[in-house]
Amino acid sequence: MPRSMPKSLRWATSLAITAVSLTLAYAPLPGFRQTLIVVSGSELKEPLTALEAQFEQQYRDIDLKIEIQGSQDMMENYRLGRNDFTATVLLPADDQLLNELEQRWQQDNPSGPALWATEPQPIAKTHLVAVAWPDRGQVLFPQGQFQWQRLSTLLAADRRWEAIGGPPAWGSFDLLMTDPSRSHSGQLSLSLWLQQSLGQDNLDPSSFQSPQAQTLLSQVKKALYQPAPSTDLLLQQFITQGPNNADLALVYESIALYRWSQAQTSQNTAYQIYPLNPTLETVVTGAVLRPGNSRRTLQAGRAFLQFLQESAQQQHFVTYGFRPLDDTIDLTTLPNSPWSQNIPGAQIQLSGTVSTAPSDAIRSALIEAWQQVQ
User: pTM for this one?
Assistant: First the structure.
């Protein structure tokens, strides 16, 4: 395909070729219905559930089964053989997790089959943000911009709101973040926080052993009470608990946008979204697993990923707060788009910078430091 062709046109042409190839290759067998098991991160639970019947209508001989797991748990469950089913597609929150799983698979199976039946495929994008109830946010960030240092000041003052000018009646500052030992968003959030605290653009394994890093890790760990294992569950807890029990949460933009109206309904007030600068982008990515799957099951897996990349499904993901693969899609004009609902803090175009995601080695060192700190 000519490199001079515009990127969006190359992507659309490639997708069309893939669609035709799958249509020709995937010839249904009369009377034969097979099960396709897709393991997805929790952030895609609702959009995938809404698409399940549509996919089965288009592919009548496929029975789609969706298993929901935290992205980090998903990788470990597959690698260690903990599942009681044979997965065909993995759909975690970030492509980096798939890259790391492939590396570990090759280490564990040096003479075994390739892990992927085809190259992992991007599905949708999102990034990290913070959410806070309006009155809390005004005290936390009087200039209207998120600052890690304000959170650090609160934690260092035993989470007393008075330390930054908040009323004593609010009690202690309640922070919600997913468990960094189990959740990808928790690891990304903590790595950004440490970068700011240490004044480093990039962390290395020794960063977590410095006294300043150890102090922050300890303060954050003490501030989190039974942290949720997944980001969507975390935000649901934030909404249910409301002010005084949950003041600020670190989540994905997609979930923050999608559940904003639920907060307004259940708490009679809606939270404010605070973009992080820098932030970290995650690309929801799907991969078809070769081991344990038949040729037809692999074809079904490829068909499912191609289905998710089609324009109609890309627009469907937008209604759930995800950013589509095609950057030319207007986020404000699609029906039910959260970007057309005047959500406080929502950004159509990111105004900040996107930091480099921590490597597998850095995240492993972070998890180890988190588990050891008191």
Answer: 0.88
